[in-house]
């Protein structure tokens, strides 16, 4: 029998029949016709920074968001083929000290709380560059990454982490459990929202998770998205925008239970879920009930909430463009800080190009020297900010505001000002 990695790669290498499909039914409850409440327009996937020769033929895909009245799931209306978005992936988990510290802390807490033993198997789905799993090495566990990005396999390997190049699925879960055994810990940090087939994903968790194992998932929380108008976190990679209620439906379907949940500040506000094989039909723990009540209270199961959100998004766009136009009319120079995926959503949705932002500075070498998808704003290393001293820097990577403002005190001392957009537009 061919080793799993060869079979797995053939899964990835199959030809892309259709670049984009319409998600007609709800991806959790299957009820037809989720209601569209916001369109951000058509734009390239926000992590696809074009090479020079691609500038004239970038692919633009619609970014329309719908709400399922039946189960409450907020989801994209269209699904871009995962191979287009993830096979050559420019985002790396190690792009910020904030994220590195966050993951180191999570690894430490997980290893201690769930008493992982030497030789226990820890699997990270969406393992990216291996940053997270590398923090488990000191616990002498066996680690395995699963990630569709071919370009990141060697980066992970340089950290001593083996990545299987594949999208997680029940088939991959079977291959892994046959070759490596069941997992004591499975993690998925900013991954579940990206899963094209949630049934197949959770079937895979059920297959791979050992009897007393734990599945730890983290992803942006819909409460934060709606309460802080974080519309730029809506992008082609994020197919689902979760509240707890619809998630419980799919967990119960696969006899999995949510035994712990916690709100955390990372990425503009996320939740961390502790999931295991159902032990008894126990009712939900108190923190789960608290969040269900909160979701009900702020109207997350009601279409009007999203219609009001959409109105606020349009208003934020108008207000930002008015501010930028006024600064430009005063002859001010404005640049962007952080060529983040969310920043590319904002720029494309607002039609902001090099006529407004002269350039964007970013710490990731792979992004420097490129231009932003769809808007073609040139990207430079961060040091250009102090060299050039533009009057204003639009903070596109607002989720790392503390870290970025902290490292740019000299720019502010010399009179530079940051423009923030989340939770509201303000100049610092
Ligand atoms: O789900 C996802 C979220 C979690 O992260 C991924 N699918 C994609 C990614 O979105 P993103 O591109 O918005 O991620 P970041 O890490 O929020 O982007 C931050 C950008 O800012 C990076 O390009 C790096 C840059 N940066 C910088 O230039 N200087 C970041 C920091 C902290 C800095 O000091």
Question: Notable features of this structure?
Answer:
alpha/beta, Rossmann fold, 3 domains, seven-stranded mixed β-sheet, globular, binds ligand DWN
Question: Would you kindly provide a written description of the structure presented here, covering whatever features stand out?
Answer:
This protein is an alpha/beta fold and 428 residues long. The protein has three domains: 17-77, no CATH class; 93-301, Rossmann fold (3-Layer(aba) Sandwich); 331-427, Rossmann fold. Helices cover 34% and strands 22% of the residues. The strands form four sheets. A seven-stranded mixed sheet has the order 8-7-6-9-10-13-12. The protein has a six-stranded mixed sheet with strand order 16-15-14-17-18-19. The chain has a four-stranded antiparallel sheet with strand order 2-3-4-11. Helix 6 (170-180) runs parallel beside helix 7 (198-208). The longest helix has 27 residues, at 303-329. The protein is globular. It starts with a helix and ends with a strand. Bound molecules: ligand DWN. The site of ligand DWN has 22 residues, from helix 12 and helix 14.
């Amino acid at each position: 029998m061919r080793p799993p990695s060869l079979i797995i790669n053939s899964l990835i290498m199959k030809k892309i029949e259709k670049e984009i499909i319409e998600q007609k039914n709800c991806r959790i409850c299957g009820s037809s016709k989720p209601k569209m409440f916001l369109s951000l327009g058509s734009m390239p996937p926000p992590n696809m920074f074009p090479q020079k020769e691609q500038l004239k033929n970038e692919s633009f895909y619609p970014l329309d968001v719908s709400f399922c009245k039946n189960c409450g799931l907020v989801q994209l209306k269209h699904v871009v083929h995962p191979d287009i978005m993830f096979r050559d992936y420019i985002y790396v988990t190690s792009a910020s000290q904030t994220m590195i510290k966050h993951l180191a802390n999570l690894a430490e807490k997980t290893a201690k709380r769930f008493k992982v033993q030497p030789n226990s198997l820890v699997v990270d789905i969406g393992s990216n560059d291996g940053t997270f799993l590398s923090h488990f090495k000191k616990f002498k566990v066996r680690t395995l990454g699963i990630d569709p990005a071919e370009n990141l396999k060697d980066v992970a390997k340089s950290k001593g982490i083996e990545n299987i190049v594949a999208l997680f699925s029940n088939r991959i879960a079977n291959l892994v459990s046959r070759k490596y055994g069941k997992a004591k810990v499975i993690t998925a940090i900013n991954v579940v929202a990206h899963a094209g087939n949630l049934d197949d994903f959770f079937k895979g968790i059920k297959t791979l998770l050992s009897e007393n194992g734990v599945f730890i998932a983290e992803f942006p929380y819909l409460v934060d998205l709606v309460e802080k108008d974080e519309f730029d976190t809506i992008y082609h990679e994020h197919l689902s925008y979760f509240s707890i209620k619809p998630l419980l439906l799919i967990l119960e379907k696969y006899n999995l239970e949510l035994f712990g949940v916690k709100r955390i500040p990372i990425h503009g506000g996320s939740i961390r879920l502790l999931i295991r094989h159902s032990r008894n039909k126990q009712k939900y723990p108190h923190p789960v009930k608290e969040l269900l009540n909160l979701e009900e209270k702020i109207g997350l199961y009601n279409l009007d909430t999203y219609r009001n959100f959409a109105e606020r998004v349009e208003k934020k766009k108008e207000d930002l463009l008015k501010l930028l136009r006024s600064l430009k009319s005063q002859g001010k120079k404005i640049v962007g800080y952080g060529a983040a995926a969310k920043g590319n959503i904002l720029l494309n949705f607002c039609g902001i190009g090099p006529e407004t932002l002269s350039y964007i500075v970013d710490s990731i070498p792979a992004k420097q020297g490129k231009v932003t998808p769809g808007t073609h704003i040139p990207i430079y290393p961060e040091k250009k900010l102090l060299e050039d001293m533009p009057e204003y820097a639009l903070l596109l990577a607002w989720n790392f505001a503390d870290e970025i403002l902290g490292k740019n005190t000299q720019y502010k001392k010399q009179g530079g000002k940051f423009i923030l957009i989340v939770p509201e537009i303000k100049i610092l």
